[in-house]
Amino acid sequence: MPFSPKASDSPAKFSLDFIREMPKADLHLHLDGSLRIESLIEMAKAGKIELPSYTVDGLYDKVFKSHYANLGEYLNGFQYTCAVLRDLENMERASYELAMDNLEEGVNYIEVRFAPQLLMDPANGIGFDEVMHAVNNGLARAKSEYNQRPDVGLSEGLKPPFEYGIINCAMRMFGKKGFSPYYTQLFNLMRDHDDMAVIKAAAMEMIRASIRMRDEEGLPIVGLDIAGQENGYPAKKFKEVYEYAHQNFLLKTVHAGEAYGAESIFEALTKCYADRLGHGYSLFSPDMIEDASIKDKKAYSEHLASYIADRRIAVEVCLTSNLQTNPAIGDIKNHNFKHMLENRLATVICTDNRLVSRTTVSDEYKLALDNFPVPVKRLKDMVAYGFKKNFFPGSYIEKRAYAKHTLNYFDTIAHKYGLI
Ligand SMILES: [Zn+2]
């Protein structure tokens, strides 16, 4: 008997041309993982920074692979990108290029995240303020160039303008103390303290400086994130940092449930007031729960998933990155994204790292749409979450107007491709 798939089993065919043309947002995008590879090579040569190879193919072969053995190998490339970014001109250039690369594939809203303290070099005049200004200058330059174009604007039929926000990351931990000049200096100054105390002090200093720059200088610093290894460094240890952000109306996302059980997602929500979740992968992997006090792991996961869906807490989904850092997933069809869709979570398709994962927002959408059943109506919902669940730097009224225009533009493009 011939196999006849149910309608819901046959994903609508969305062409890459359509995907590139539809409006998009990327809410989980690391600056230091998203450099142009050619720029990295050029910057390294100019700055006499050692790379394992100075050709594009060589770097793809040795560092930025299409498949990684584990998270450690995935993170290996950041030492090179951070090294070249510890230079204000390079920082500004990389930020500008990142915005332009996004615009080139129809991504009109981005939230760029990075750990400012990893890029600081206080002995060479690169302090927190200098880092923030350099990144913001690059993004602002792209915005002013793009938004001046005659085919861009908020009037009907025009392409949505480019907007962006900056999310500052605190770091959970470091593999080695010589990782960045700032942290090396801080570890020396606080050598009588344990590592966790040093890391927390750095995070607190970072969040205070972020809010000062937002309030006094008007920089679009819109959110706080915490990155780095989850195991052994739970988000709840950074509760005061998140509380400070919360009390100052800075929005919060947390890398949670990327490589640790669903209890870390629960902590992100309840202890860190997370407005969004980075990855949230383990939400549908009850076996990953390690907290012995949780007896019925399956029920815990289900309750938590239902809560997240009901509260409309957006999950920043990074498909390629998850497959690369967690090779046990194997095929994309095994990715928990299918459960996120079935449970009606508010999912936003993101890249994580354009260079390290060798991907783009359009490629991530293509991967999702080719492998999971998503009708056009739900695709529009997914695109909408990128504009409704973002940490927009302007007022709520401005955010609504921008989202509304963007979603009308989605309809225009979907109509053009005969999808609606
Ligand atoms: Zn990330």
Description:
It is a single chain. This protein is α/β, with parallel strands linked by helices and 420 residues long. The protein has a single domain (7-416), classed as Metal-dependent hydrolases (TIM Barrel). It has 18 helices and 8 strands. It has helices at 16-21, 37-46, 56-62, 71-75, 78-85, 88-104, 116-119, 128-147, 181-189, 195-217, 239-247, 262-270, 297-310, 319-325, 337-342, 361-371, 376-388, 396-416; strands at residues 24-30, 107-114, 163-171, 221-227, 251-256, 276-279, 314-317, 347-349. It has an 8-stranded parallel beta sheet with strand order 1-2-3-4-5-6-7-8. α6 packs parallel to α8 and α17 (376-388) runs antiparallel to α18. The longest helix is centred in the middle third of the chain and has 23 residues, at 195-217. It starts with 15 loop residues before the first helix and ends with a helix. Mean pLDDT is 94; it is low at 1-10. It binds zinc ion. Zinc ion is lined by residues 28, 30, 255, 278, 352.
